[in-house]
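Hi team,

As requested, here is the filled-out complex form for the iron/sulfur cluster run. I kept the field names the same as last time so the parser does not choke. Let me know if anything looks off before we queue the next batch.

— J.
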Amino acid sequence: MPLNPVLIKDGHQESAEDFNDFPELEDFLNSNHGDAVRLPNDVDLETIKLRLQSIKTIIVDFPSFADGRGFSIARELRKKYGYSALLIAEGPLIPDQYAFALQCGFDAIKVDEGTYARQTESDWFNAMDAFSLTYQRGYAFKQGPALSVFDARKTSVGALNANDPYFGLSAEASLRQSIEDYNGKIAMVSSLGADSAVLLHLVSKIDKNLPVYFLDTGKHFRETLAYRDLLIGDLGLTNFITLTPDSKELKAEDPKGDLNQSEPDLCCALRKVRPLDKVLTDFDARITGRKRYQTPDRKNMPTLETGGRMAKVNPLAYWTAKDVTAYIRKHDLAPHPMFALGYLSIGCQPCTTRVAEGEDPRAGRWRNNDKTECGIHYIDGKWVKVPHKKTFEVF
Ligand code: SF4
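And here is what came back:
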């Protein structure tokens, strides 16, 4: 059975549905209309020169990844013929070639889903890194108005960057940049959940002394506390800070320690929100492990979110679950001991249950309760409770 094609644009997978069944060159030339064509990699561009201005999409064929003639076609189309509309490379290209394709003037590449799946999304997205750096380096040296279609395209890359200053940076690069930008005023809060090791590992590569806060509610699985100690040792973190609730407040508001059963929101406020609130006011930015795939409203989440009192840095924004798994395997990171037992999202012991096969990973948290998160959302200078049923805040 043939594999479905996918389009890779801006480092991400999109449906290629609109780009199937394009007319071959001969059919295109034999008809006097049509604004899309598929070009073989030995095309003589003079044959379509007069109709280029009316073409909205060109697909260039790459029969094998070792045949690079399509790259020259793209360069010629952009530089010699001034073609400025959509240009797509189609064939079994790999991430390194994706970056090069962008540099040659392609907007996107079309591969089959098998080729796409042989890499992780971050491989494709990281290829954008090479592309952005190449473009930006050239742009920085050139002054004045755009000189060519390549310069004009740099402007659009700049516009994307204006919305997300860390656009196109890999997870590690954006994390590194944020630590530099918010020098001394940035911290991470870790839940020590199922995939927390990824971000902690990235932090440890850049700055082992970055403040990392963990909320010890007094209700965690003992495995979570052991996991904390294991990761601190394995990763050599030197500024890992465990926060605990105020003992006087605990005594006054939850003397029996069972507030979670009657008032879980108050319990979270007492054990998580307030202790964290006290320390985060000293910082301007917070690193999170949130990812776009987790909820629909995170679909376009930037890597750097600014605007409120506290910026949020989401280095893993564009990662998929597959990326997380690939990273954990690659770096042989210790898994949370509860994960293998069916706890796919791990919080406090009284509020966490196993997840059954096929269930939402988050279904085991506050089961049989409307509550879905801890309310630890710092928006526009204050903590607010976000009223979505499915949120995946990291606590
Ligand atoms: S997760 Fe449960 S036990 Fe933990 S602070 Fe919230 S309500 Fe209390």
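Two things worth flagging: Residues 171-384 form a domain with the Rossmann fold fold (CATH 3.40.50.620). The chain has a mean pLDDT of 80.

Thanks,
J.
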